Amino acid sequence: MVRQIRCVLMRGGTSKAVFLRESDLPVDEVERNSTILSIFGSPDRRQIDGLGGADPLTSKLAIIGPVRTTEPRAAGTHLTYTFGQVEIAHPEIDWLSLCGNISAAVGAFAVYEGYVTPSEPMTQVRVFNTNLSRVLTIEVPVLDGRPIEQGDYSVPGVPGTGAKILIDFSDTAGAATGALLPTGRPVDRLNVPDDGEIDVSLVDIGNAHVFVRAGDLGLRGTEGAAQLDADHELRARLERIRGAAAERMGMIANAAQSREESPATPILGIVSPPASYRDENGGTVVNENEVDLVSRLMFMQQTHKTYAGTSTVCTGVASRLAGTLVHEVTRLQMRGADTVRIGHPAGVIETETRVEKNGAGEYVVRRATLGRTARRIMEGYVFVPDTSH
């Protein structure tokens, strides 16, 4: 016996997710998680018996629900969105993080499914994200009542071009830890077991992040994802740093349990000054004058093949916070502009960032945007084995 559950498969930016309606899933948490794992074919490194793509960027879930009237911050929103990072080789789902790429697809999904009344040429979708209990504002281009998918906006790591969807993450500042700078300091020194001390910057917007200097790891900063992933000793060291940062930010109680308790966040960024390098997708040269800094990400214990959406906005905001390691490596002449250009393994990604100080001298994020494209790939039913018989 099998059960059938309606689903939509959508690409958002450089990620792909299975979209499910909250009302179609079991209410019981254990049964719900079991159902989701079955849908994805986890645990299995190939996810051969499900919809997962055997890669962290394609093993993602968006659960869409109605407006939560019990949440004061949800007032004026059109729908709720819960993001799940489904583990591939382990029977686990990480509910602690947010995917910026998939958030773009959520905006388009809301228009397709009638959660918001379409308005041409741009429909603003206000989404309450349950992972962070914050609101995302998503601008979706619309024609004849439907999202426009074709356009000339290019996202490195995605074939072709599409219509630009803009997401503003400014409301997510401090959502995971309570503050944009969780420790109140632009730089912290961590004492990492087996590695000694290292300087880091801890910043929380979109998702909580820990940034380190490439030079402090013995890296140039322009290494490709495959090269970094091949260095197993480096990956183990980065996970120890990430665990120590998670403990310092109060996200977990024991740094040694980072892989089990919070595998997705904080995301770790390796930053360095502008430099030229060859991108891993097209083999073209990214020139140092095309970027304001270079960064590589460790996500789910692997090097990100491009650059995460939430990391884009967090890196952009961090580049505006005086004293952070990101601010330190960012091109000086760009520090007065809104646009920040980040060089990643597959090219360059931009974010609009505006940060001010209030009367108390605290940073306030006024704008933190991400431009993405999205496409509806498939809709239909996924068949789930019924284990009750």
UniProtKB/TrEMBL annotation:
Top-level taxon of origin: Bacteria
Keywords recorded for this protein, A-Z: Isomerase
InterPro entries named in the record: PrpF-like (IPR007400)
Signal peptide: none
Molecular function GO labels: isomerase activity
UniProt entry tagged with the keyword Isomerase: yes
SUPFAM superfamilies listed in its UniProt record: Diaminopimelate epimerase-like
Record family assignment: Belongs to the PrpF family.
Protein name as it appears in the record: Methylitaconate delta2-delta3-isomerase
Annotated organism of origin: Bradyrhizobium lablabi
